[in-house]
C-alpha cells in the first residue's frame, strides 16, 4: 500500500531539512507545504499576523489533495512538510488521506530559545521570528495519537533526528 509521511512542528524546527533527508532515503517526492499556502496566508504571515484555524483548513485540504494525487499517480511514498501544530489538524490529515494510503505523522519539537536563535538568522523567510511564539502557543505535542510520533530535537544534528524517525518507517 502507498504511504504518506507528514513532517510537522513549528517554524524552524527542521521540517524541510528532515523531509528532504527522508525523501532522498526513500527515493520519493517531497511536497514542501510552505509552497502551497494561498496568497492570503502568505500576505498575512508577511505582515506578522499569525494564521488562524480558518486560514489553515484550506491549506491543509490542498496539501492532502496534493499528497493523494502523488500516490494516485503511481508513487509508492510521498513526504509532506506541514506544521500541523494541533491535534485536530493531524486528525483531519489522517481522515482525509483515509484508506488511500498509510499515513504516518512526525511532529518535531524543541525549546523555544533554540528555535528563536535559529530563526533570527533566517531573514529572507516570510515567517517572522517574532511570530514564533504564537506557533509555540498553538503547538499541541502529540500524546497517544494513532500513527503520530513526537520527536524532540534539542541540539541533535539533522542526521540524528532522521535516523530516529527512520526507526518508525518500513524501508
Ligand atoms: N537539527 C538541526 N540542528 C541545527 N540546525 C538545523 C537543524 N534542523 C534544521 N536546521 C536549520 O534550521 C533552519 C530551519 O530549518 P528548516 O528545515 O527550514 O525548518 P522548518 O522547515 O521547520 O521551518 C535551517 O537553516 C536549517 O538548516
Ligand atoms: O517553515 C516554516 O517556517 C513554517 O513551516 C511556516 O512557514 C509555515 O508554513 C507556517 O507556519 C504555516 O502556518 P502555521 O505553522 O501557523 O500553521
UniProtKB/TrEMBL annotation:
Name the Gene Ontology biological process terms: carbohydrate metabolic process
What EC class is this? Answer: transferase
Q: What is its EC number?
A: 2.7.1.12
Give me the Gene Ontology terms describing cellular component. cytoplasm
Q: In which pathway does it act?
A: Carbohydrate acid metabolism; D-gluconate degradation
Catalysed reaction(s)?
Answer: D-gluconate + ATP = 6-phospho-D-gluconate + ADP + H(+)
Record bears the keyword rRNA-binding: no
Q: Which domain of life is it from?
A: Eukaryota
Keywords carried by this UniProt record: ATP-binding, Kinase, Nucleotide-binding, Transferase
Under CDD domains, the record lists: GntK
InterPro entries cross-referenced by the UniProt entry: P-loop_NTPase (IPR027417), Therm_gnt_kin (IPR006001)
One annotated GO molecular function: gluconokinase activity
Hey, which family's this protein in? Answer: Belongs to the gluconokinase GntK/GntV family.
Q: Which NCBIfam families match?
A: therm_gnt_kin
- List the PANTHER family: GLUCONOKINASE-RELATED
Q: What is this protein called?
A: Gluconokinase
User: From which organism does this entry originate?
Assistant: Eeniella nana (Yeast)
From the broadest rank down, the organism's phylogenetic lineage runs: Eukaryota, Fungi, Dikarya, Ascomycota, Saccharomycotina
Amino acid at each position: 500500500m502507498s504511504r504518506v509521511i507528514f513532517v510537522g512542528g513549528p517554524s524552524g524546527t527542521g521540517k524541510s531539512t528532515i523531509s528532504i533527508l527522508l525523501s532522498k532515503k526513500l527515493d520519493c517526492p517531497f511536497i514542501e507545504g510552505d509552497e502551497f499556502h494561498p496568497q492570503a496566508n502568505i500576505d498575512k504571515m508577511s505582515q506578522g499576523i499569525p494564521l488562524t484555524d480558518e486560514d489553515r483548513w484550506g491549506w491543509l485540504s490542498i496539501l492532502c489533495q496534493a499528497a493523494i494525487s502523488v500516490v494516485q499517480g503511481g508513487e509508492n511514498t510521498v513526504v509532506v512538510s506541514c506544521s500541523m501544530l494541533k491535534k485536530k489538524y493531524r486528525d483531519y490529515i489522517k481522515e482525509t488521506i483515509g484508506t488511500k494510503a498509510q499515513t504516518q505523522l512526525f511532529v518535531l519539537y524543541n525549546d523555544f530559545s533554540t528555535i528563536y536563535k535559529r530563526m533570527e538568522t533566517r531573514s529572507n523567510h516570510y515567517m517572522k521570528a517574532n511570530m514564533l511564539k504564537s506557533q509555540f502557543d498553538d503547538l499541541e505535542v502529540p500524546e497517544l495519537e494513532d500513527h503520530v510520533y513526537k520527536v524532540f530535537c534539542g541540539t541533535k544534528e539533522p542526521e540524528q533526528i532522521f535516523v530516529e524517525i527512520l526507526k518508525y518507517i518500513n524501508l
